[in-house]
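Schema walk-through. Below, the input block comes first and the output block second. Nothing else is stored per chain. Lengths vary across the set, and this one has 137 residues.
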Amino acid sequence: MWWIYALLSAFFAALTAVLAKIGIKGVDTNLATAIRTVVILLVAWGIVFYRGGVDSLPGLTRQNWVFLILSGAATGLSWVFYFKALQLGKVSQVAPVDKLSVAIAILLSVLFLGEVLTWKSALGATLIIGGTLILIW
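--- output ---
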């Protein structure tokens, strides 16, 4: 079932790039990021309240808070740079470079999470990097 959610994520990420490219025309990218963040904030908290997830908020540990906050900061920086790249470049070039995050995530998961680098993961990461280079040149 995870792969269905992953495909939906990929679809909406692709849609995000196209919609953002249209939406940021003539707009400060930091303002665009802030608007996008408010929308995401409303949607995310709406889902949490609708699904009853607020009840588990007191159970979060210090580690949960620290790493979720750091993850949020990383996401925010990613969006700031992504919007700036979209404003300056073509979606067909920016999106593939952004997806290098997949190969980088594989490397980071091996280095920091102790995940095993299989030949399939290594080959996949290599193909992603190669495909990105082909698309941007």
